[in-house]
């Protein structure tokens, strides 16, 4: 049973690190002027202000990549990181639905929400399952 808990936590940390790395690369390319849509919301902004905001977002996304990868090495002790990430992802969905749904409508936006909900579910399940005796 302990091996299953450990495996679930490790897989969650790796999934999170890979997902954040992919988003970080996407945002880095946007910040460099490439006209890719944002992988999370399918929003395709323009202008130097948008590029600068994506650059700052890139730094934070790569920070989370490193934090989640770090969690992989001591998953039981650092499992609360999964819960923190799940809460932040939930907040991101709520904020987008409340304030930006008119800008972010479309299948790309829906797909981004579905992916985040899946990650929230995986992180939450792994965290709470690991607490079971």
Explain how this protein is built.
With 133 residues, this protein is mainly α. The chain has four helices and no strands. It has one domain. It has helices at residues 2-31, 48-73, 80-99, 107-131. Helix 1 (2-31) packs antiparallel against helix 2 and helix 3 (80-99) packs antiparallel against helix 4. The longest helix has 30 residues, at 2-31. It is elongated.
Rg over alpha carbons: 16 Å
User: What order do the SSEs take from the amino end to the carboxyl end, as H and E?
Assistant: HHHH
- Fraction in helix: over 70%
Morphology call: elongated
Reported for the largest beta sheet, the result is: none
Give the DSSP E fraction (strand runs of 2 or more residues): under 5%
The class by helix and strand makeup works out as mainly alpha
* Helix count, DSSP H or I runs of 4 or more residues: 4
Instruction: State mean pLDDT (0 to 100 scale).
Output: 94
The count of strands amounts to 0
Our measurement of the CA-to-CA distance between the termini, rounded to an integer number of angstroms, reads 9 Å
Give unreliable regions as ranges: none
Tally the structural domains: 1
